[in-house]
């Protein structure tokens, strides 16, 4: 970590600093210069203009870039009131004094309220607006309730004020843990405090002003419907850091994120899409506070594309690599980076929700209705291994499948099937059955009742050595079966990362509860990395977490201890199914936008391909040639008859990934 003493430090950022009198107060501003129209950057509550020191230089080739301290913040006068209406008048006055008639505006956090108000009340002075983690209704009750249980010190504790170094370390550990070089935010830190004669520091903003500012944050409400300017909304994955730092603190952060911020963010995005229908929404890695540092290239690329239209080369930033395109809306044709082509692999008379392909090309599926377990033979669906095993009314359900839920070819070459059972049927409980593909007959069967609770519903599974991991979508947990002993254990049982807290949104509509559940399915999808080290998993509506498999495999580790090692991985939303390749890329179907996403080995989400036929793609499979098989089950259209009828015929689609499979 770099630290700089007060005597040795000077601000070397490439900007000028000045003051203007506007709306009866002095406002401090930073001016990076530049060519072209004005781009004004507006910081968040309790922050200052230096938070943009790292970002602003990326735009000076095509904009005159300015940031300023809001009233009561940084070096601007601390004269109230501090509400959005007053701050909007301040901005108008600043523009007048700097000779700016019209500008592009970018608002971070609370600054999002300011750009919304400016675009609503003074549209003639606004070219476009960019929300930098700022398109939220900060004034709603959800945020106030969330902050009551905030697991970090939102305001610096007394120990952090003992010296500039202590204060810098507080900012680093709480707000910028992923930013290794603290010199990148040194001017920002120094303008938050005043260094006193005894080398202690005090906040530049008084407690009374801070309370007034926070009060306006929690009461002012944005009015998006009045905005007519082009708009871009960039969202970070999380509010707090859930990846870097002390495992105990990370577990608290993740719990808070899952309970409070994930649904708050989802509701905010839904509202923005509804009230600003032309808005472009982009999600980038990082946290609310650090994303413009840790994901600078993503933010710059998204803003350059937004400002420059389709010819993003006009706004190239030579110092930073371009990011992948943002997640887009529903496609009308098969599109993707690299142009992978989506092809129809199978046309079916009825819908399939799971598919697996053997090394020699045999295709097996689970259908929505009976007979459920089938093989595709010469263009026809045939009950597998025979009709007797698909007879739900068979007198002995130990030799028949009641409700097959998932299947895959295991590392041993056997066809494995989860029969989750069915309430009210005397079937001896759920079971895990293996079929030999040469004999076309069952060779192993494991009862799964020992790992189930009342209301449990086994869904997906993956192999890792002699252990098998199952997801329980009825009572969130990863259930472990040892193939040698048959012993079962529940892990991460009820952990926030396994609980479904978001609604399932499919083709723009909220999906009613599935499979007799009272809510969105709990932990549903899971994948194991090629080396067996990592387990990735998520509830049906996201987000995705990961944990090292050693914590899952060790029966001596308590669930409380195990939960400390869960890491947030990617802010996935409603998901139909997943698959992982040998390079660690996870493919996730997005039934809301009717597209396929790719989550790379760093956790970054990008679009892979979109096609209007990809209607609720469920459990997928990568074959030996690198093709990803995608059963378009259309679950929302099949189970809930409404305004969207099923698209016939039913299909299994496939697309080339260019990667080798991982069969775990």
Which SSEs are present, and which pair or pack?
Layout: E1 16-22, E2 25-33, E3 38-42, E4 64-68, H1 84-97, E5 103-108, H2 111-121, E6 126-132, H3 141-147, H4 164-174, H5 186-192, E7 193-195, E8 201-203, H6 207-217, E9 231-238, H7 247-275, E10 280-287, H8 291-294, H9 296-308, E11 343-348, E12 352-357, E13 363-367, E14 373-377, E15 380-383, E16 404-409, E17 415-419, E18 431-436, E19 441-447, E20 458-464, E21 467-472, E22 477-482, E23 488-491, E24 505-506, E25 509-510, E26 523-528, E27 534-539, E28 544-548, H10 549-553, H11 559-563, E29 567-570, E30 578-580, E31 586-590, E32 595-599, E33 605-610, E34 621-622, E35 627-632, H12 635-639, E36 650-656
Parallel strand pairs: 3-4, 3-5, 5-6, 6-9, 9-10
Antiparallel strand pairs: 1-2, 2-4, 7-8, 11-36, 12-13, 13-14, 14-15, 16-17, 17-18, 18-19, 20-21, 21-22, 22-23, 24-25, 26-27, 27-28, 28-29, 30-31, 31-32, 32-33, 34-35, 35-36
Helix pairs in contact: 1-2, 3-7
What is the fold named in CATH at topology level of the largest domain? Neuraminidase
Shape: elongated
The CATH H-level superfamily of the largest domain is: TolB, C-terminal domain
What is the number of domains? 2
Question: Mean pLDDT, as a whole number?
Answer: 89
Distance between the termini: 40 Å
Question: In angstroms, what is the radius of gyration?
Answer: 27 Å
CATH class value of the largest domain? Mainly Beta
Percent of sequence in beta strands: 25-35%
Task: Supply the helix-strand structural class.
Answer: alpha+beta
Number of strands: 36
């Amino acid at each position: 970590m770099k630290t700089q003493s007060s005597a040795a430090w000077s601000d070397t950022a490439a900007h000028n600093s000045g003051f203007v009198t506007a709306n009866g107060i002095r406002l401090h501003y930073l001016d990076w210069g530049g060519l072209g129209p004005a781009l004004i950057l507006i910081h968040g509550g309790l922050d200052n203009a230096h938070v943009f020191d790292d970002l602003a230089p990326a735009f000076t080739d095509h904009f005159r870039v300015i940031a300023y301290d809001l009233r009561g913040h940084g070096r601007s006068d601390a004269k109230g009131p501090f509400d959005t209406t007053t701050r909007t008048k301040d901005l108008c006055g600043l523009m007048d004094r700097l000779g700016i008639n019209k500008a592009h505006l970018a608002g971070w956090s609370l600054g999002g309220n300011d750009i919304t108000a400016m675009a609503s009340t003074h549209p003639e002075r606004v070219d476009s607006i960019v929300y930098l983690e700022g398109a939220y209704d900060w004034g709603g009750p959800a945020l106030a309730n969330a902050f009551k249980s905030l697991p970090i010190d939102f305001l610096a504790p007394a120990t952090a004020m003992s010296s500039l170094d202590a204060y810098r370390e507080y900012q680093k550990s709480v707000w910028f843990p992923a930013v290794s070089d603290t010199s990148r935010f040194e001017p920002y830190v120094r303008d938050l405090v005043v260094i006193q004669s005894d080398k202690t520091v005090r906040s530049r903003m008084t407690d009374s002003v801070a309370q007034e500012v926070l009060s306006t944050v929690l009461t002012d409400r944005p009015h998006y419907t009045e905005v007519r300017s082009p708009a871009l909304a960039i969202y970070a994955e999380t509010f707090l850091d859930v990846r870097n730092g002390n495992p105990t603190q990370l577990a608290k952060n993740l719990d808070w994120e899952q309970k409070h911020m994930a649904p708050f963010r989802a509701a905010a995005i839904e509202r923005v899409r509804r009230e600003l229908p032309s808005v472009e929404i982009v999600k980038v890695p990082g946290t609310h506070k650090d994303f413009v540092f840790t994901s600078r290239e993503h933010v710059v690329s998204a803003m350059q594309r937004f400002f420059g239209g389709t010819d993003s080369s006009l706004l190239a930033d030579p110092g930073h690599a371009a990011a992948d395109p943002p997640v887009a809306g529903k496609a009308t044709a098969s599109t993707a980076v690299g142009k992978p082509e989506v092809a129809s692999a199978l046309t079916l008379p009825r819908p399939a929700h799971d598919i697996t392909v053997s090394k020699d090309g045999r295709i097996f599926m689970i259908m929505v209705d009976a007979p459920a377990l089938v093989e595709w033979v010469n263009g026809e669906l045939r009950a597998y291994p025979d009709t007797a095993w698909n007879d739900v009314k068979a007198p002995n359900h130990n030799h028949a499948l009641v409700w097959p839920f998932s299947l895959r070819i295991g590392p041993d070459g056997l066809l494995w099937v989860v029969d989750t059972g069915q309430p009210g049927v005397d079937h001896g409980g759920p079971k895990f059955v293996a079929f030999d593909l040469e004999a076309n007959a069952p060779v192993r069967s494991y009862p799964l009742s020992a790992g189930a609770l009342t209301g449990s519903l086994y869904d997906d599974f993956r192999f890792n050595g002699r252990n098998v991991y199952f997801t329980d979508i009825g009572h969130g947990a990863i259930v472990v079966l040892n193939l040698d002993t048959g012993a079962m254990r529940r892990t991460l049982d009820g952990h926030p990362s396994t609980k479904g807290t978001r609604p399932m949104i499919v083709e723009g509509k909220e999906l009613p509860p599935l499979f007799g559940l009272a809510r969105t399915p709990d932990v549903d999808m899971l994948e194991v990395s090629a080396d067996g080290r990592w387990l990735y998993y998520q509830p049906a509506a996201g987000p995705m977490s990961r944990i090292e498999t050693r914590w899952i495999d060790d029966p001596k580790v308590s669930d409380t201890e195990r939960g400390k090692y869960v890491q947030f991985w990617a802010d996935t939303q409603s998901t139909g199914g997943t698959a992982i390749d040998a390079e660690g890329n996870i493919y996730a179907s997005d039934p809301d936008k009717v597209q396929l996403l790719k989550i790379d080995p760093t956790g970054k989400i990008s679009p892979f391909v979109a096609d209007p036929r990809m209607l609720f793609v469920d459990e997928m499979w990568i074959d030996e040639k690198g093709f990803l098989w995608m059963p378009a089950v259309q679950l929302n259209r099949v189970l809930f008859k409404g305004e969207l009828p099923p698209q016939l015929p039913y299909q299994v689609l496939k697309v080339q990934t260019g990667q080798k499979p991982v069969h775990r």
